[in-house]
Amino acid sequence: MRRLGSVQQKIPCVFLTDVREEPSRKRYCESFQIVATETVNPLALEANIHSAVATEKVDGTCCYVTLYQGEPYLWARLDRKPTKQAEKRFKRHRRSQQSCEEFSWNVEEDFKSVPEAWIPAHRVKRHDGHPVPDEHGHTPGWVPVEKSNKQYCWHASAVDYEARAALVLRPSAGDENMLEITAVPLDDLQEQTLELIGTNVNANPYKLGSKKQPVHCLVPHGSIVLRKPPAVDFQQLLCWFQEALEGQVEGIVWHCGDGTLIKVHRHHLGLKWPDGDPRLSNRPVVVRVEGHSRHSGCLFALFSTLNGRGFSRLQDVQFDLPES
């Protein structure tokens, strides 16, 4: 299958949206929520969404593989955000103008500091050589995941720089119903984006690992293709999310032929997430990780002990740990 789109920017919803002044279902601290109307987004129609590849939207945190100091590296998502004072000024302007247009940012003073190695995401606009924030006042970007940085310790657990490999969850070749956890060379993942999922990410909707033995892995974006996706229609999508076994997912991301990405999230349709066991956590999986000793990273070594073993559900993957 051809490599599908890389996630570098916020993905627009398949429907035009409204903002409602009521508590968000997605983020507990927000007093508003964004909901879909029944009108298909013209951007989706222009990108010929009806011929697009529909894939599962996976609930994790976005990552990127690209070079760092000449070597393929895993990078974590880090948006450059405005300071509190600049954000207040930006929000006042947006309320008064009903738009973020014509707002003037001071790129030297209005933003919080980011690590020296930080890079802006692809297609971020620039002005006088400086990256320009999006309509939300954020500048999407990436920071390299270094083993010494405790902030990204769960990202780091899924990568082994000595072995130049990453722990990846993906469909198994030759069996579309089976998933596999395997060590993939970082060279093979270059310029791809992936979703980190696991025990300590987004409240662990897929029920991976445990507090005693956390489990994290990377899912390449666009890798889990939906076999019988619903039509791009509000009512049909709503019914699919509520009733179809395959619909127990966070959302859908459509990969259009021109590279455009379009999404819908259950929250856009007023639905809970998670709601029962997600489809991904109930899929069968086989472990194919070998050749990693205890010196090459704890999680890689533990998966090596399971090499060749299958589990009826992803959430059942566990290690035979010695009694403490």
TrEMBL record:
Does the keyword ATP-binding feature in the UniProt annotation? Answer: yes
Q: Which Pfam families match?
A: RLIG1
Q: Can you state which reaction this protein catalyses?
A: ATP + (ribonucleotide)n-3'-hydroxyl + 5'-phospho-(ribonucleotide)m = (ribonucleotide)n+m + AMP + diphosphate
A GO BP entry is:
RNA repair
Record's keyword terms, sorted: ATP-binding, Ligase, Nucleotide-binding, RNA repair
Q: Where are the transmembrane segments?
A: none
Which is an annotated GO molecular function term of this record?
Answer: ATP binding
E.C. number, please? Answer: 6.5.1.3
InterPro entries according to UniProt: RLIG1 (IPR041211)
Taxonomic superkingdom: Eukaryota
Cofactor(s) annotated in UniProt: Mn(2+); Mg(2+)
| Function in brief | Functions as an RNA ligase, in vitro. The ligation reaction entails three nucleotidyl transfer steps. In the first step, the RNA ligase reacts with ATP in the absence of nucleic acid to form a covalent ligase-AMP intermediate and release pyrophosphate. In step 2, the ligase-AMP binds to the nucleic acid and transfers the adenylate to the 5'-PO4 terminus to form an adenylylated intermediate. In step 3, the RNA ligase directs the attack of the 3'-OH on the 5'-phosphoanhydride linkage, resulting in a repaired 3'-5' phosphodiester and release of AMP.
Annotated protein name in UniProt: RNA ligase 1
Q: Which organism is it from?
A: Oryzias latipes
